[in-house]
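Standup notes
- DV: blocked on the single-chain target, sequence here:
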Amino acid sequence: MRREGRFDAWRLPGGVTCPAGVSVDGHGGAEVVRVRATAAWVETVCEALMGAGEALADIPAREIARALGRVGERFLDEDDPLRRRALEILPGTSGLSPEMCRVVLDGMARDWTEERLNVLLARELGAAEALDDFLEGAADTRARAVGPALCAQVVSGSVPGVSATALARSLLVKGPTLVKPGLGDVALPVLFAEGLAEMDPRLGDAVAVVYWPGGSRELETVALEAADVVVAYGSDETVRSLRDLSPPTTRFVGYHHRVSVGAVGRETLSGEQTVRAATEVAEAIAVFDQRGCVSPQWVWVEEGGAVAPDAFAEMVAVALEAIEDRWPTGRLDMDEAAAVQQIRGSAELLRAAGRNVRLWQGATSPWTVVYEGGTAIEPGRMCVGRVVRMRRIETLEALPEAIAALRGHLQTVALAVRRDRFDRVAAAVASAGASRVAPFAEVAFPPAWWRQDGRGVLQELVTWVDA
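- DV (later): unblocked, structure below
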């Protein structure tokens, strides 16, 4: 809801009213109005959701997918009021530029369609009907999947759309859902929930979106103790804290801090394909302004091509500058801007000291390319603002050793290599802990059915019952 430039960061099931007072948080140039929740009120919300779950259980899974898909498709329709509201609100709440918000909304919402949700159900559960009744399996087995009585989703606010995706996943398996989004991701789950309430009040009553500041231990404890499945996104510290607050009988699904990287093979460093590779690398860096877990923070360039690794880094810098015209960088807060300046300053000092370091940076925007002549890395604080560190490597077959320090936090490896080499390099980085390997052009928006961090996103939410 839009009110005098403010956005209400909640959507409640029918019959539940807001607490007496509200608070206002500033974020990304917007004022986000949140409920001043109490533990007793959160308990009331949870009870209402679990009551709505009884009706949810009787709705066929394909009917739920159809309703979710119809709402999701509204975000792709240029003429739909729901999409227009989203694009009006997103820049202020997310900190991304209006142009980038459009890119992110299109990339996220394409997975909220009925077609893609049904593919997700089929790939993970075998058939949507597994949520409706016992189905015959191999060797005279019968089984059905049962969703949670209440799913609590605690989501970080770094990338808009993640909370809405989380909401859709748990409703898809007939799980009434409490979503606590991060401050930068309040708009889309609220709008999605409003759309659901218009489409089917039974589904609208089975979801609540409520923002409160992270670390509100009393509120989080009530929500986590009421749920039988908890899904948490965030830093290692946040996920650890929420895991500790969850009862031992509660299924806990944690998506902790992840890092993605990229690599460019020597065979792509010649002719027009070099320009195309540099553009795709730059676009992968630009989407989400490097806030996403799929954003490549380091990129290795293989030696021996027609274009040297440092020359390719310069081409990426040129591509990033060109991208500013169509996808401008969003706002950085003070800490983020300081981190970018620190990276730039450190590179300049190293170069002045005679180290093999080169730096390219935007004159009026915070994009930054740092080329460092070494190969191995020492992971430090990740940056936003389209910062990338580029390095040379003698052969991509040595990439697992170069990224060894990222094990446990490595997620996606983006590749620009010849097709007949892709599987060989992918197998090598898989052994180093990567859970996804994709071309640069595809890294920003994995398909709905990707195994996030190597695990099935619906399988994590359901319990299988054999009969």
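- Follow-up: The longest strand covers residues 296-302.
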